[in-house]
Fold this sequence. Notes:
Helices cover 33% and strands 18% of the residues. It is of the alpha/beta class. The strands form three sheets. It has a six-stranded mixed sheet with strand order 3-2-4-1-5-6, with helices on both faces. It has a four-stranded antiparallel sheet with strand order 7-8-12-11, with helices on both faces. The longest helix is centred in the last third of the chain and has 18 residues, at 276-293. The model is unreliable at 160-169 (pLDDT under 50). Flavin mononucleotide binds next to strand 11.
Amino acid sequence: MKLYFVRHGIAEDMADSDFTRELTPRGRRRVAQSAQVMRRLGLRPQRIYSSPRLRSRQTAEVIAAALDRPATLADEVNFGFDLDDISSLTRGLGHDAEVMFVGHNPDMSRVVHQLTGVNVSMKKGGLARVDVYDGIAAQGELVWLIAPKVFDALAEYDAPVLAVSALPTPPQKLPETPHTLQRLIQNRWSPVGFDRERSIDSATLLSILEAGRWAASSSNLQPWRFIVAPKENQAEFQKLLSVIREGNQPWAQHAAVLMIAVAHKFRGPGVANRHAGYDLGQAIAQMALQALDHGVYVHQMGGFYPDKAREVYKIPDEFEPYTAVAMAYRTSDLDHLSDGHRQRETSQRERHSLADLVFSGAWARPADFLP
Ligand SMILES: Cc1cc2nc3c(=O)[nH]c(=O)nc-3n(C[C@H](O)[C@H](O)[C@H](O)COP(=O)(O)O)c2cc1C
C-alpha cells in the first residue's frame, strides 16, 4: 500500500483559535503548485484524509481538486495522529491502494519515522511517500520525501520524469548548445512575461542579493551597490519604475522587484577603478543564477535614465548607475504583453559561435582546439 503524508501549507500565525488558522495566500499558492506536481507525478490516492483544522482542510481541498479525488475530514488525523489511526483508516484496503493523510507536525514527521525508521523533518507543504507491504505495523519504506522547495523546482523545470505534464508551465527557451552547460546557465535568459501576482519573499530576495555580495572583484573592492524596490512598497516601486525607459516599462512594471545597479568608480581618492563596471556585472551575473535557483528570472536593462536615477536617489558623483534590473517569476499568461514582446518571449536564443569569440596565436584567429 502507498501512503502519502502531507503537512499542511504555510498558515497565518494568528486566528480566533488554532482551529481556524487559514493558509496564507502564499501558502495556498504553493500548495496549489505542489498539487499540480503531485498530479504530474501520477498520485492516485483512493482516499485523502484531512485533519479537520482549517489549514489542513484547505490544503487537502486544493490537492483533492488537483488530483480529482474526494477529501474526507477525519478526526484521527488531528493532533495526536498515530499508527493506530493509520491502521483504522486503511483497514480493508487492498495492498495496491493509495491513501493520503494531510495533517500536522510533529505527528506527520513522527509517523513517517515510526513506519520507516528514518528521521525526517516534514516542512509545511512537504510530502512523504511510504510503501507498506505487510500491514501497518510492519516496517515501511520511505520511497521519497519532497520538500516544498523541491516542489517549487519541479514546478519550474520540466524534469524528464514529469514529461507527461499537463501543467501550463511557461515554455523554456533552452539554447542549442554543442557543449555541455550547467543547468542554471542553460536555463537563464531574459524574459518579459512576468507573473504579476507573485512577489519574491524576503528570504529569496536576500539570498539573491547575498549571491551578488560574494562575487569576485578587483582587489576585493566590492564596488557594487544596489537600490532595491520590491513591489510591496508601491511608492518606492513606482519611483524606481519612473527611472526606467519607456520602451522597457510595459513589461518591467510587472516585475516583483526592480533594482538599480550602481558601481563605485574609484579605488581611492582620485584613482579610477577601471574594473568597477566589470565587477558589478559579475555580481549581477551571480545574482541571476542564484535567482534562477529559486525560480526567479533576472532581466537587466541598459534602457534607463542614469542621470534621473542620480537625481531621484541622490547618488554621489563617485558612483555610476550602470543598469536597471527586473526580477520576477515567469508566467505562461502573456495576454498583457504587446505582440512584439510576446513574440520575443518565444523566439530562439542566438549567440555567436565560439570560433567568432575564442582566438589563439593572433587576433581573430580561431583557437586551434575548437572543433
Ligand atoms: C547590460 C545589459 C543591458 C540590457 N538592456 C536591456 C534593455 O534595456 N531592455 C531589454 O529588453 N533587455 C535588455 N538586456 C537584455 C539583453 O537583451 C539580453 O540579455 C540579450 O538579448 C541576451 O538574451 P538572454 O539574456 O535572454 O540570453 C540587457 C542586458 C544587459 C546585460
